């Protein structure tokens, strides 16, 4: 089974081609261009390099969040468009689950941290079991950075941190966790197409079927928060 995966949930754009458990190729771009500018050219270039066509694909995989609200929508829209046009099953995975593959078979707990803005991280905690599966110990959530660091410190065990928030917060992580923290190089710890491909294939083996994909935001967007405040204000005035 041949498949394409897409991840645009962070500032990194990643795509991958895989055939069952074998990674065929991946694309990785961490530049100032938007996902909408990068995603289609990346897919076309990767297919060309692998000597594949869209018609060779049997499945489409996509990361549905959490992460950038705009990025999530771009990735899902692209994947859904390809799935519908090619009449292929669509499989979705979480960004944090995919990132857990950065620490495959490591002894430390794997903790992805993604920039959620508002001084928060999207995070979860995983521990690798024997074989090809990581146990999710702490479910995905949005946490204030200081609260997250305090929580990790209390675990009193080594923590392997991965994700796009690591580089920006290295000083805070070092101050809070010291030698308890293990930081992987960015070429390992940032989102990669290979991680998404692994997560997608693992899910496909369990389900064997496509799904209706919905964005996974965890919390409301800024626009939704502002809309809710306006509606609340309107209701308040109507009762005066």
TrEMBL record:
Organism's domain of life? Bacteria
- One Pfam entry for this protein is TsaD
- What cellular-component terms does GO give this entry? cytosol
Q: Which Gene3D superfamilies match?
A: 3.30.420.40
Please name the InterPro entries in this protein's record: ATPase_NBD, Gcp-like_dom, T6A_TsaB
Where does the Gcp-like domain lie?
A: 32-149
GO BP annotations listed? tRNA threonylcarbamoyladenosine modification
What protein does this entry describe?
Universal bacterial protein YeaZ
Where does this protein come from, organism-wise? Answer: Desulfosporosinus orientis (strain ATCC 19365 / DSM 765 / NCIMB 8382 / VKM B-1628 / Singapore I) (Desulfotomaculum orientis)
